[in-house]
Amino acid sequence: MKIASLHQHFLVSSGISTDTRNILPNSIFFALKGANFNGNQFAAEALSQGANYVVVDEKTAIIPNDERYILVNNSLKTLQKLATFHRQFLGLSIIAITGSNGKTTTKELVNTVLSKKYKTKATKGNLNNHIGVPLTLLSMDEETEIGIVEMGANHPGEIEFLCNIAFPDYGYITNFGKAHLEGFGSIEGVIKAKSELYTHLKKHKKLIFLNQDDKNQKIHLPYNHYFSFGSKRTAKLKINYIEGDQFARINYNQTDFKSQLPGKYNAYNMAAALCIGLYFKVPFKEIQQAIEAYIPENNRSQVIKKENKTIYLDAYNANPTSMKASIENFSELKTPGQKMLILGDMLELGIYSEEEHQEIVNLVEISNFDETYLVGPNFGNTLVTKSTLIKFKNARTLKEHLKTIPIHNSNILVKGSRGLALEQLVDVI
Q1: By residue range, what is the domain housing residue 263?
Q2: Percent share of the chain, pLDDT over 70
């Protein structure tokens, strides 16, 4: 079946399903494959649960004479082609956001701001890969005016591939950091890979949103069609960053923007949302209201109050750049009570893992925190010289420790990669 014909079926469907555990009635089920599953084996079940059609790429999955089966060469590629066709059919504006740190928070802030004036659709959670991006595009309809698409990558070429699915009109890179070094090979590899977004925008003569304070981005900017923000006069939007608060704050046009996001690194995310909002002519006061009302969730930049304790929970992801920024910001925070760290391993660093974990330990030891709990085998292999740094094999063993020796009257930063599941500690802190 041609993509145009499949798209006609899609337009009268309720959407796309890829998992029989949550089939949408009257949807189209795509039989995708993974390392431990084969969607073709569940095609009949999808139909029995209410799907209108199933897209399969194995003949053995088809029940003869049942026209609800659509056989293609590759179900995933067909999903991606359908998403591109649909994006072109709608002809709406697409903003792509990528970067090593902060892309999900920035995406959420941008969506919150733009939705004050436009009907928007944005990537749900962090569904930002070769499956998530197509599903995001296919969630948009004729009422959608602006789409905000988060793009993630851990290998070269992935951002370029996603751009060729979404064809963004605008793009923003939050930063270049030491993330996924195992796949990118080096920080230079990260910069080259993330810059694939800018290269795509240049090729198609589209617009870049730029943090002009980021020297790395200015160096690697491929052309000068951009709308910028920053603390210098040369930026289109002059932003002042306010230091020392528990929550990130910025000042623009003699107006303070107070967020519910901890850390100066989140001030850049706020500024990006302000920049994009102003470019799209969202009323100034509504931009301010949207930024100040945004409350983070899903273990990202959350501030949790518990009795005489304040927990700064940022346990969705971690890499050397974000870990260092979080520790330094927490160290500078002016707040009563003790300061404690709970740090989990940073994953996907490859040959850089030992060096980067040791650098974090070295930073902690000169920062004079009252106590630090290091969680995971990578931190377990580091050299520690202070008794205030205590190692734990995993989050479960630390959880048991906290049940017997509870924390009182403290501010606690909880930071680590998703695989460590440090959010489970919140209940016992």
Answers
A1: 91-293
A2: 98
